[in-house]
Design goal:
mainly alpha, 113 residues, 3 helices
Length: 113
Amino acid sequence: MPTHPSLEAAWRDLNRRSAILWWLYFTCLPGMFLLSYLLNGLILQWAPFLFVGFAWLGAIGWAGSRMAGFACPRCGRAFFETWYFFKPLRQRCAHCSLTRWAKEMPPAAETGS
């Protein structure tokens, strides 16, 4: 059974966005301390730590917003977020329930609302 080409590209994009977010998240503390230590000789004593910390948190925020903005390949709405909450570990679209990493595009479920 062949994979739908737009689904394959969408899941590859999601995998890239997710990897960047989790990599920034898990390397936050070691990366901040390492960069602060390396920049310590160039700038004042605590300035590198604050600068690197704010830059790293900004990068995490940017990556999180990119992942939150991932559009569902079926309905085109935000896959991970509803109007009130962002769940990066969600396995189904918040709006049309398309399963994450689906190989084919099933028709959208009918809702009675």
